[in-house]
Design a protein that fits this description.
Blueprint lengths: L5 H4 L8 H20 L8 H5 L5 E2 L9 H11 L11 H12 L10 H10 L6 H20 L2 H11 L1 E3 L2 E2 L1 H9 L8 H10 L13 H19 L9
Parallel strand pairs: 1-3
Antiparallel strand pairs: 2-3
Helix pairs in contact: 2-7, 4-10, 4-11, 6-7, 6-8, 10-11
Length: 236
Amino acid sequence: MSPASPKAKRRKLPWYLRPFKWLFWFIVASVLWVLVYAVVPPPVTFTMLADGNGITKDWTGLPNIDRNMVAAAIAAEDGKFCSHDGFDRDAIEQAIERNAKGKRMRGGSTISQQTAKNVFLWQGSGWTRYVRKVPEVWFTFLIEKIWGKRRIMEVYLNVAETGLGTYGVEAGAQRYFKHGAAKLTPAEAARIAAILPLPKKREAVSPSGFTRRYGNTIRARIGVVKRDGLDACIYK
């Protein structure tokens, strides 16, 4: 009798163990993905690929982005950016309570969570939004541990949508103010930050109504961010 071939000896995993195998390879692949992007600029994201308005972007390192823009992002999106571990639990609890009362849906995502979503996942709404939350938590944990705050902020400011088919604050600054992100005034940085949640519907140039008022509020908070060292994890 001829000896059994290696293929004949190989046994398939029972069906109930296969999900663990898939989970193992997902963990390995996701860690490698995050490690690569720790040093390499993300070339494109799912959000960019799904944008029917084209893609205009210009990767710019954090040293070439005005500190006013960093302060504006923290003031507008995540005042506890330097002190949390990727998740603002107070904001999450408030969002849950607000949504449970039937008020307008509102999230409690930090800049770290938004970066994880923008770089590795998809936008989506409805039930796909809840499906996305599990991998979003995982990728947020990874970038906090592997990248650190400075890299997270750098990537966030380069992949965030800042207008129709426009991504990153450099492209946004060029589009709205005709100069680069290296020299943004507090007012200009605040205007860009004010449109980040709804860049397709809000206007950074000559804003009106809520966008103008929100931009003025962010501009005032920029001074608070600098005064209280809320950006200290980036500018040590």
